[in-house]
Write a structure and sequence with these properties.
Elements: E1 2-4, E2 13-15, E3 23-31, E4 36-41, E5 43-46, E6 51-53, H1 58-61, E7 65-75, E8 83-93
Antiparallel strand pairs: 1-2, 3-4, 3-7, 5-6, 7-8
Protein name: BppU family phage baseplate upper protein
Organism: Pseudoglutamicibacter cumminsii
Pfam family, one: BppU_N
Length: about 100
């Protein structure tokens, strides 16, 4: 994750050092069938450079199709409800390996 000073004319992106903030990254997912998964945990790979990784869980891969993802930084101290929207992206689940219908979650 990187941040940019929007008041500056330069488009310079600076890594967010996750060791120096009380915020933690979380992911919210919305599948093509309308299922919603909130507060999916991310693994911090390189905290100093803001690198995180999401391992797609088995319950998400049951839902074939496009999965919309929203990345947030939320206050981990629970002292406030502060959060910041960081990014939107998507990925596709091509094959769930399941042959029967599944319900919306």
């Amino acid at each position: 994750m990187k941040k940019r000073n929007i008041m500056s004319e330069k488009k310079e992106f600076i890594p967010i050092n996750l060791n120096q903030t009380k915020f933690r990254p979380v992911l919210h997912l919305i599948t093509e069938d309308g299922s919603i998964f909130t507060n999916e945990e991310l693994e911090v790979v390189k905290a100093e450079e803001g690198h995180v990784r999401y391992n797609v869980s088995d319950y998400v891969t049951k839902h074939v199709g496009r999965v919309q993802a929203k990345l947030f930084l939320i206050d981990s101290s629970n002292s406030t409800d502060d959060s910041s929207h960081v990014a939107d992206f998507y990925f596709k689940v091509n094959d769930s390996g399941i042959t029967k219908a599944i319900g919306k979650e």
